[in-house]
Amino acid sequence: MGTVAAHGLCKSFGKVQALDGVTLDVPDGSFFVVLGPSGAGKTTTLRAIAGLEKLDAGSVHLDGRDATGDAPAARDLAMVFQNYALYPRHTAYENIASPLRARRCSSSEIAAAVERMSSLLHIERLLQRRPAQLSGGEMQRVALARALVRHPRAFLMDEPLTNLDLKLRVEMRTELTRIHRSLGATFVYVTNDQVEALSMADHVAVLKEGKVQQVGTPTEVYERPANKWVAGFVGSPPISLLACHAEGDRLVGAQGWTLPRPRWTTAEDGRALLLGLRAEDLSVEQRRDASLSGELYGIEPLGDRTVVDVQVGTEILKVKARPTVTGTPGERLLVTVDLDRAHLFDADTGLSLSEAGR
Ligand SMILES: Nc1ncnc2c1ncn2[C@@H]1O[C@H](COP(=O)(O)OP(=O)(O)OP(=O)(O)O)[C@@H](O)[C@H]1O
């Protein structure tokens, strides 16, 4: 078993309220990602679960038992940090074996565990090398193997891939998901990288200024963001938000445009709204009735695709397009909108108004 339940966590450092009622329910065996920008309280949440931070309020239950007052060592949790130094004089094998030696496991148990971990992380051929003879990525794998060789109740991981270059990070994401599946262990994983979160997690908690904004599957968080902040933080390029209000069967933009009013919103006429449009739900290549007229503002080629910035009044729409798209700034463009996939938010509270009827 490896359930982790953190309820109502509050923690202040002087005047900074790092955690303001954080509640997370991590199911056994899940890959649970805590996602948020720098300073959101992710590390503090992890440290609170590990027992390394004294809480002002709140509780931590592990496997259903209240562990709030337990010392870190009594919680049976493994912390994996961004920087985990290897012992420089020891071989990779000895480094991986060290947590088991500390627990006085037998040599045969240790050999079996190191073999399993090194095969999972594809580092069998590196076991006799010392850290100085390994590349950065290989060291990271050895360090991960050392962290994962134990069987704690859950692994708490604080941005463990941050120091890797992009290619290796992408590879390690796939590796970690595979390792998670084969270990069947509970992972609580902290990151500020939304691609990392969406690609690895089965549950995501989005954190901002010490408050949980939304908890859901990656698809739920992306497709049905609870508020405009989550909509803006998750997704690349960021969602475009256009000021508007409903008027009869139309949505009327502050910049003068109109679109058919989506069937799925119950927002009353006149209420200040924000229409959220993701780049992939917009197109400059077709023309249908639901379209916005604007001017080409800029083109951002990204290799496999291109993002076209279209200026509608004073607002910019980000539109995903084919890599071959070309154009001249100032050129008039019609942007087709897939309104069934759009989002509406209350302009004052930022809360989503998109759920009804969808
Ligand atoms: N020991 C401390 N003393 C004072 N302030 C702290 C301490 N630890 C954290 N904080 C503050 O609490 C807030 C939350 O910090 P935390 O490290 O949990 O954020 P984070 O989401 O992990 O950020 P990052 O992604 O940058 O690591 C920040 O404003 C931080 O400056």
Please state the overall shape, judged from the principal axes of the Cα atoms.
Answer: globular
Widest sheet: strand order?
6-7-8-3-9-10
The total count of helices amounts to: 8
CATH architecture of the largest domain: 3-Layer(aba) Sandwich
InterPro entries: AAA+_ATPase, ABC_transporter-like_ATP-bd, ABC_transporter-like_CS, ABC_transpr_MalK/UgpC-like, Mo/tungstate-bd_C_term_dom, NA-bd_OB-fold, P-loop_NTPase, Transp-assoc_OB_typ2
Pfam families: ABC_tran (PF00005), TOBE_2 (PF08402)
Domain ABC transporter: 4-234
Protein name: ABC transporter permease
Which descriptors would you attach to this protein?
Rossmann fold; alpha+beta; OB fold (Dihydrolipoamide Acetyltransferase, E2P); binds adenosine-5'-triphosphate; single chain; six-stranded mixed sheet; 20 strands; 23% helix; five-stranded antiparallel sheet; 2 domains
Provide a quick synopsis of the model.
Keywords: ATP-binding, Cell membrane, Membrane, Nucleotide-binding, Translocase, Transport. This protein is α+β, with helices and mostly antiparallel strands. It is built from eight helices and 20 strands.
Task: Give a structural overview.
With 358 residues, the protein is α+β, with helices and mostly antiparallel strands. It has two domains: 226 residues, Rossmann fold (3-Layer(aba) Sandwich), CATH 3.40.50; 110 residues, OB fold (Dihydrolipoamide Acetyltransferase, E2P), CATH 2.40.50.140. 23% of the residues lie in helices and 33% in strands. The protein is built from eight helices and 20 strands. Strands 6-7-8-3-9-10 form a six-stranded mixed β-sheet, sandwiched between helices. A five-stranded antiparallel β-sheet has the order 13-12-11-14-20. The protein has a five-stranded antiparallel β-sheet with strand order 15-19-16-17-18, with no helix packed on it. β17 and β18 form a beta hairpin. α2 crosses α3, α2 runs parallel beside α4 and α3 packs across α4. The longest helix is centred in the middle third of the chain and has 18 residues. It is globular and about 75 Å long. The model has no long low-confidence stretch (mean pLDDT 91). It binds adenosine-5'-triphosphate. Adenosine-5'-triphosphate (ATP) binds next to β2 and α1.
